[in-house]
């Protein structure tokens, strides 16, 4: 599944960011939208990886917290509530969550959930502001949340490698790559 998603993203992604202003007409548009934005893919996989590193109950709490809070951010975007530095917040999510995976950070669960929720607001807001008035926002939101959940699940499945010493090194290396991608995303925003 991850290989297919990666190949599809490479072949069909135009800009580096998931927030392109494209038609968001319904379920399929919402489902495929996050799969073509490297910034979203990196952050969603990092949430799953970090949850896997932290174990139970974080392996469930973090991937559930993100889409719930993302929906709140989406509602704020739909309502036109301004949120400063949305793209920077999204890019920073890959950087910070990647660092958390790379360092195998083990904060209290509420701190990890707060961090994930903070970044979820930015992801949701960006997509909420993109919905045209003629779109089917409910279908788009359902598709977007489902794709986000699948990306979290991909991170969790990859994070299962943490059961071995070698696997922990591989997962932490993936966190370093995600953090590096976050730096690139931030540089693209600033450049």
Could you characterize what this model shows?
The protein has 191 residues and is an all-alpha fold. It has one domain (44-190). It is built from eight helices and no strands. The protein has helices at 2-12, 27-32, 38-54, 58-78, 86-102, 109-130, 137-159, 165-190. α3 packs across α7, α3 packs antiparallel against α8 and α5 runs antiparallel to α6 (109-130). Mean pLDDT is 83; it is low at 3-24.
Structure class: mainly alpha
Largest sheet: none
Q: Unreliable runs, pLDDT <50, ≥5 residues?
A: 3-24
Shape type? globular
Helix content: over 70%
Strand content: under 5%
Radius of gyration (Å): 15 Å
N-C termini distance: 33 Å
How many strand segments?
A: 0
* Total domains: 1
What is the overall pLDDT average?
A: 83
Could you give the order of the helices and strands?
Answer: HHHHHHHH
The number of helical runs is 8
Layout of strands and helices, then pairs:
Layout: H1 2-12, H2 27-32, H3 38-54, H4 58-78, H5 86-102, H6 109-130, H7 137-159, H8 165-190
Helix pairs in contact: 3-4, 3-5, 3-7, 3-8, 4-6, 4-7, 5-6, 5-8
């Amino acid at each position: 599944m991850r290989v297919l998603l990666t190949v599809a993203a490479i072949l069909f992604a135009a800009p580096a960011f998931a927030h392109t202003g494209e038609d968001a007409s319904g379920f399929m548009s919402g489902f495929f939208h996050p799969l073509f934005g490297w910034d979203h893919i990196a952050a969603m996989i990092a949430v799953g990886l970090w949850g896997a590193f932290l174990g139970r109950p974080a392996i469930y709490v973090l991937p559930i917290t993100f889409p719930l809070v993302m929906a709140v951010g989406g509602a704020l975007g739909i309502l036109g509530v301004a949120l400063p530095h949305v793209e920077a917040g999204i890019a920073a999510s890959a950087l910070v969550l990647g660092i958390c995976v790379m360092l195998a950070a083990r904060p209290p669960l509420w701190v990890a959930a707060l961090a994930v929720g903070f970044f979820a607001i930015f992801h949701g807001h960006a997509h909420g502001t993109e919905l045209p008035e003629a779109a089917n926002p409910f279908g788009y939101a359902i598709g977007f949340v489902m794709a986000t959940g699948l990306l979290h699940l991909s991170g969790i499945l990859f994070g299962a490698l943490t059961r071995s010493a070698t696997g922990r090194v591989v997962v932490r290396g993936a966190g370093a790559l995600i953090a590096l991608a976050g730096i690139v995303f931030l540089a693209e925003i600033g450049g």
